[in-house]
Write a structure and sequence with these properties.
globular, alpha+beta, four-stranded mixed sheet, about 35% helix, five-stranded antiparallel sheet, 17 helices
Length: about 475
């Protein structure tokens, strides 16, 4: 990239918001698991939508590649530039203002660089709830959450990220700004343009602002960890508690025994939640707008009747906020705890809930047959059919030798998920990691539609090229 172009960008965003030093750029160029490490001509951190638009206008005129980036917590390489060193990384972390909160309309308008935790806190300040919840919520940003259609632990009750958005502000590839920041729940005037950009991973436009849906803040919660003998019993328990609670379930998470053991071994303060080990566990949480102990009583009664049906062997209901937090720590630390066990091959798949048991049985048997000693750690959002089917290396195996099996295990696990009418990407997106595999799975019509959108909205191919779909 020439000095003149850098000077023009510097004039737009300011001296301190343009980084070209290699050491200073390094944290922005590596995906959090180290699977992708790119190069860039500069890191650009605009401070406003107008600055984003000016940079994109300049990039469009000069054919400069732009890689949008939020909190850099993505797991499929969607936020990482390639090795050419020609791209600029457009990091939106400086755009972190809460624009407005309309308590009567139950909406929160924010810049794209607001962290998920900050959005949650802003909602809570008005006794409201923004229900999107992820383990990385202190770092991930709203723009990235929406660009990847993040899921999380409350999808069962509230839906994915795309279900929590009423309006967007978008900077297009040529620098034009679409102001769709309308907090309307009904607007039937033409195409729903925001849905084009939600989940598009910055390949069609750059999200710079969003109007988010808020909900009444729960006044009480009931949280329990229950030991279950099988995933089939967990599904039965899900439907049982769902019926008993009148749909008050907000989270229902499946965890294997090996995952509990890894967390207890490597996370300070983590404790085994029950006295006797079980092959599987579920973390279930109910929420209500009423005060009192009704939810705890209801959950205890539901679990007791589940014990009678042999769906549950033991359970404990949290008796304090501290105990509830400890339960959630076990679930949220499960992925990071695997890092201490050597190499980990991760999958983010979904299947219909009715096929969860068959998926787990077939996938566990298949990976054991492929590599004896491998340690499956399948966990995740059973309530919406999303399983993180992670594989830890056999004890004593060389890590690099294990990770060399990544493609083969993708074929096995993804093949089983697809055979059961599932998806190879439930909530992490496509990015670089799954782009070519997705292209083999989509129909010609689907791929043509996606490529037509890409060419129409980004005719010069400067927005995050090489991600999601090849043109």
């Amino acid at each position: 990239m020439g000095a003149e172009l850098l000077a023009q960008i510097r004039a737009i965003v300011g001296e301190s918001a343009l980084t070209i030093n290699a050491d200073d750029m390094a944290p922005y160029l590596e995906e959090r698991r180290g699977l992708y490490v790119g190069k860039a001509a500069a890191i650009v951190r605009p401070g406003s939508t107008e600055e984003v638009a000016a940079v994109m206008k300049l990039a469009h005129e000069t054919g400069t590649i732009v890689v949008p980036q939020g909190g850099n917590t993505g797991l499929v390489g969607g936020q990482t530039p390639d090795q050419s060193g020609e791209a600029i990384v457009l990091n939106l972390s400086r755009m972190n203002a809460v624009r407005s909160l309309d308590a009567e309309n139950n909406t929160l308008s924010v810049d794209a660089g607001v962290t998920l935790a900050a959005a949650q806190e802003a909602a809570a300040s008005a006794s409201r709830l923004f229900p999107l919840s992820l383990a990385s919520e202190g770092t991930c940003q709203i723009g990235g959450n929406l660009a990847t259609n993040a899921g999380g632990t409350a999808v069962l009750h509230y839906g994915n990220a795309r279900d929590l958005v009423l309006g967007l502000e978008i900077v297009l590839a040529d620098g034009r700004i679409w102001d769709g920041m309308r907090g309307l729940r009904k607007d039937n005037t033409g195409y729903d343009l925001k849905q084009i950009f939600l989940g598009s991973e910055g390949t069609l436009g750059i999200i710079t602002g969003a109007v988010l849906k808020l909900f009444p803040a729960p006044k009480s919660r009931a949280t329990a960890i229950a030991a279950v003998p099988t995933p089939a019993a967990a599904v039965s328990l899900l439907r049982h508690v769902e019926a008993e609670s009148g749909g008050a379930i907000t989270s229902f998470e499946l965890m294997p025994r090996i995952g509990i053991e890894m967390v207890c071994a490597h996370v300070p303060g983590a404790r085994d939640p029950l006295t006797a080990p079980s092959p599987w566990y579920v973390l279930v949480e109910l929420s209500s707008g009423s005060n009192g102990d009704e939810l705890n009583i209801l959950l205890e009664r539901s679990l007791a009747s589940a014990v009678e049906r042999a769906w549950v062997s033991d359970a404990v209901v949290a008796q304090s906020d501290a105990q509830r937090s400890a339960f959630w720590q076990i679930r949220e630390a499960m992925s990071d705890a695997q890092r201490h066990e050597g190499g980990s091959i991760k999958h983010d798949v979904s299947v219909p809930i009715s096929n969860i048991t068959r998926f787990l049985e077939r996938a566990i048997e298949a990976v054991h047959s492929e590599l004896p000693g491998i340690r499956p750690v399948p966990f995740g959002h059973l309530g919406d059919g999303n399983i993180h089917f992670n594989l830890s290396q056999p004890m004593g195996m060389d890590t690099e030798a294990f990770l060399a099996h990544w493609t083969r295990f993708n074929q096995i696990v993804h093949g089983i998920a697809l055979d059961l009418n599932g998806s190879i990407s439930a909530e992490h997106g496509i990015g670089q990691l799954k782009r070519d595999e997705m292209a083999e799975l989509k129909s010609d019509v689907e791929l043509d539609l996606m490529r037509t959108l890409k060419r129409t909205l980004d005719p010069k191919g400067i927005l995050n090229p090489g991600k999601v779909v090849s043109v």
